[in-house]
Amino acid sequence: MSDQHASSLPPPLHSPLPRVVIIGAGYAGSHAAVAASRSGKVEVVVVDHDGRHGFLARMAGVAAGRLRTSDARAPLRELIGADIEVVHGRVVRIDDEAGTVPLDDATLLHADAVVVSAGSGSPAGSVPGSDRYAATLHTPDDALALRRRLARTDRLVIVGAGATGVQLAAEVAAARPGIEVRLVEIAGRLLPAEPRRLGDDVMTALLQVGVHLHLSTEVARVDRRGVVLGDGRRFDGTVVWAGGWRADATELLPTAPTQDGRAIVTSDLRVSGLRRVLAAGDIAAHRDIIGRLLPMSAQIASQAGATAGHNAAALATGQSTRPARLVELGRIIDLGDRGVGRVGPIPIGWGPTSRLVPLLHLGVDLRHLWQLGGVAVALAHVPTRGGAQATPPMRTPLRAVS
Ligand SMILES: Cc1cc2nc3c(=O)[nH]c(=O)nc-3n(C[C@H](O)[C@H](O)[C@H](O)COP(=O)(O)OP(=O)(O)OC[C@H]3O[C@@H](n4cnc5c(N)ncnc54)[C@H](O)[C@@H]3O)c2cc1C
């Protein structure tokens, strides 16, 4: 907890300016903080229980050893301006009426406007034993713990073939040629929430690096040894429960209307029905300019965070807000040293262009960091290689089994 905010704070304590409180130092929260601060008219306080910004899109690379452990996260303070206050603490609830944000250590922060950007959570626990025995990959701590476990195992069972599951499978198979990697998915194809073509490209890539695919396969139980399938078979090894991330906005905003756990927001990102609370990132049900629900992603969280920060400063100072114009620019699935996806409508399949994907991802990372803190910050936090073998050995393609 920062000394400057270590007790119950009447408004305003250190600054005569109205205060914007931002909850969460992830993609949405960091951009919200910088945007609010740029208005020059508000005091900005970011509350995060860790105080560090997690680079979640790098987690599979960190877990597999392709990226360094230091690439998992960075102190938020290193990424944003010195005039933004960073408070270590966990917010328990937001009181919109009173304009207060209570933390779990009994600190009460006054707020003229609040941006909720607390992200989404891990779904482990949906199958007996998964919360006890399966690792997950949703935070930097998860990635670092999994990296240690992977160093001691020669069999990995990944449950869930969404983006996290396929990325982890590809990264581990590429970085650890000797390891047996199984990917188990209840749907009949990879990336079930994405267009079929993307899933097919990923399947080609995974088969090439020797990942065993088990589609239309249900996991009934996880135990100390591995997973037990619906048909009674078992796969032994270290189990990772991957994907199905879910937000629950009502934890912090009990009265907020939600869609699949995400807060419903107006076009200027205010939480419907609340006066001074905005939401951005995974925790909000964002829509694009023609009203389509957008997936939870770092690029949407960053865009929404910037607008929410600007609008929070406007609300706190009695200015007009502006509508969010959120655009999904593309989709990239990193698969070790290569990847697939699309840029706008242009697909990137598992051909020669797949080698461009790491470069694209580097560009996305640099842009994110540069927008927060300029060139020096971008260069200081470029991801670096972690020393593990990165080039996948070519193997005889296996068959997908169901
Ligand atoms: C393994 C993995 C890989 C991914 N890969 C990609 C990718 O390649 N491309 C892409 O676009 N997206 C990717 N995503 C999704 C992307 O990372 C998320 O959509 C994005 O992080 C959402 O940003 P956010 O700011 O809403 O939440 P987060 O980045 O999760 O940040 C939330 C922050 O809030 C803090 N917090 C939570 N609750 C509280 C509380 N009560 N009090 C205080 N602080 C709190 C947390 O500590 C955290 O710092 C990936 C996600 C995962 C898990």
Produce a short descriptive summary.
The protein has 402 residues and is of the alpha/beta class.
Features:
402 residues; alpha/beta; FAD/NAD(P)-binding domain; 2 domains; five-stranded parallel β-sheet; 26% helix; 21% strand; disordered N terminus; disordered C terminus; binds flavin-adenine dinucleotide
How does this model look, in words?
The radius of gyration is 21 Å and the shape is globular. It contains ten helices and 22 strands. A five-stranded parallel beta sheet has the order 5-2-1-8-19, covered by helices on one side. The protein has a five-stranded parallel beta sheet with strand order 9-16-10-11-12. The protein has a three-stranded antiparallel beta sheet with strand order 13-14-15. Residues 1-12 and 388-402 have low confidence and may be disordered. The longest helix is centred in the C-terminal third of the chain and has 19 residues, at 298-316. A hairpin with a 2-residue loop joins strand 20 and strand 21. It is of the alpha/beta class and 402 residues long. Helix 1 runs parallel beside helix 8. The protein folds into two domains: 3-49 and 89-121 and 246-316, FAD/NAD(P)-binding domain (3-Layer(bba) Sandwich); 123-244 and 330-402, FAD/NAD(P)-binding domain (3-Layer(bba) Sandwich). The chain has helices at 27-38, 59-64, 76-79, 130-133, 140-150, 163-175, 196-208, 298-316, 357-373, 375-380; strands spanning 19-23, 43-48, 52-54, 73-75, 85-88, 100-102, 108-110, 113-116, 135-136, 155-159, 180-184, 212-214, 219-222, 226-229, 234-236, 238-241, 258-259, 262-263, 277-279, 330-335, 338-343, 346-348. The chain binds flavin-adenine dinucleotide. Residues 23-29, 47-50, 54, 56-57, 59-60, 90-91, 117-119, 137-138, 163-164, 281-283, 296-299, 301 line the site of flavin-adenine dinucleotide. The site of flavin-adenine dinucleotide (FAD) has 33 residues, from helix 1, strand 2, helix 2, helix 6 and helix 8.
